[in-house]
Design brief:
11% helix; 342 residues; five-stranded antiparallel beta sheet; mainly beta; six-stranded antiparallel beta sheet
Length: 342
């Protein structure tokens, strides 16, 4: 889809960017330790219903937490994008036919481009709903329909993250983070409660999932772990059904292959194996994300480690000064830019 900016929208974008100069870092929603694991999946389209989001929960598991993210397109790029909790709670969003009107948090990336502005992605706690759906179903594989109501074309899609425990699982940790990276670059530090075991040992696991929206057509993010590049291809609309705004979403999870991350932009699944970036005895590790095109929304990270994640301490990369950003924005007011999304 193509969109053009006019003077009033550009001014609004400049003011928005200056007013939100502090970075919206990825912060932990929850850290879970014990015999735990995580199920993550996403879906996006402009159809009604949007499609089905999947879950994998083995029999005998206890659902510890479940969150549904609904990721709107950016404002002021689209002036009618959802920006408030009320926008999401009144839109008619549903999971498995049950209305989800308890969104309580807004997260999302901040672009260094004033014309893009900011994403207002909403998070709802759907733990009790998922508990009832799992109890009523016949797992371990589930698929639940998603509706986006009146904001369908201005919501790129949904992500469902479920943390569960099961006595058959190895001892480990799951960390769910959300917020929004500064597209200019940001580092998240993961602190461990005990020195790391041998990453080359049988049974050791270290997986990372990233969720990104408003991405297609070569727009990619770079991710590094402990200073070494993991991928330069994060992005695209792998979980969206068409290359169109309102359907541009990808998240690493069910059905994805972590070996694809070094292949190409089209192959990268946003699910990553971190073992080769870690070492025996590590007490922390760092993750750096940067979106060079400054127009993708990395709003979610899921970590699974057969180790002890104790805390997440993000250290944002400094953003350009507000006055410099304002100057760049004003300098572009006379220009009419256009962006092709598929």
């Amino acid at each position: 889809m193509v969109s053009s900016k006019v003077l009033s929208v550009a001014v609004a974008g400049v003011l928005l960017a200056v007013g939100h100069s502090a970075s919206a870092a990825l912060l932990p929603v929850g850290i879970f330790n014990g015999n735990v694991a995580v199920s993550i999946d996403g879906i996006g389209s402009n159809s009604s219903p949007v499609g089905s989001v999947q879950a994998m929960v083995p029999a005998g598991s206890t659902i510890l937490a479940a969150y549904l993210y609904s990721a709107g397109t950016p404002y002021p790029w689209y002036p009618d994008s959802p920006r408030t909790l009320a926008d999401y709670n009144t839109a008619g969003i549903s999971l498995a036919g049950t209305p989800v009107n308890n969104f309580t948090a807004l997260v999302g990336a901040i672009s260094t481009r004033a014309d893009i502005g900011q994403w207002f992605t909403a998070r709802a706690d759907v733990t009790s709903l998922v508990q009832s759906l799992v109890a009523a179903g016949a797992g371990p594989d589930y698929a639940w329909s998603v509706e986006e109501g009146t904001k369908n074309t201005r919501i790129d899609g949904e992500v469902l993250a479920i943390v569960y425990s099961n006595p058959s699982l190895p001892v480990g940790s799951v960390a769910l983070l959300d917020g929004g990276q500064n597209t200019g670059g940001e580092t998240t530090n993961v602190a461990l409660g005990a020195p790391l075991g041998d990453p080359t040992a049988a049974g050791f696991a270290a997986m990372m999932s990233i969720a990104s929206t408003f991405s297609c057509c070569g727009q990619a993010s770079t991710i590094s772990v402990n200073g070494t590049e993991l991928t330069g291809f994060a992005g695209n609309f792998d979980d969206g059904l068409v290359a169109s705004d309102g359907s541009l979403i990808t998240v690493g999870g069910i059905g994805d292959d972590p070996s694809n991350n070094v292949a190409s932009y089209d192959d990268d699944d946003e699910l990553y194996d971190l073992r080769s970036f870690l070492a025996l005895g590590d007490t922390s590790f760092s993750i750096f994300t940067q979106n060079e095109t400054n127009d993708d929304n990395i709003f979610f990270m899921g970590l699974y480690l057969t180790g002890n994640i104790r805390d997440i301490n993000p250290t944002p990369t400094p953003e350009p000064g507000s006055l410099a950003l304002l100057g760049l924005g004003l300098a572009g007011l006379g220009l009419t830019r256009r962006r092709q999304k598929g």
